[in-house]
User: Fold this.
Amino acid sequence: MAKSKSLDMIALEQIEEAAGIVEPKGAAARTRVDKKGLLTYHSATVIKQLKRIAIDQDSSQQRLVEEALNMLFVKYQASPIA
Assistant:
């Protein structure tokens, strides 16, 4: 049986949405407009290392992955467009 939301949770979500605290469902964050998701699976060790590097470099995981993709594109003679 599917777990349903309590009336309290529904009311809280509506209040947050009305107050502009959360994006309405289906709305993309401004940083995601015209972008598509890319899901990859990695070991817990890889994820922890990526998080550590992001913290050490005062960067985001997103920016580090973009950097890595650009390096890959250059390696294969493609434009670094990430």
User: Anything to note?
Assistant: The chain has a mean pLDDT of 86. The longest helix spans residues 61-75. The chain has one domain: 7-75. The CA atoms of residues 21 and 27 lie 13 Å apart.
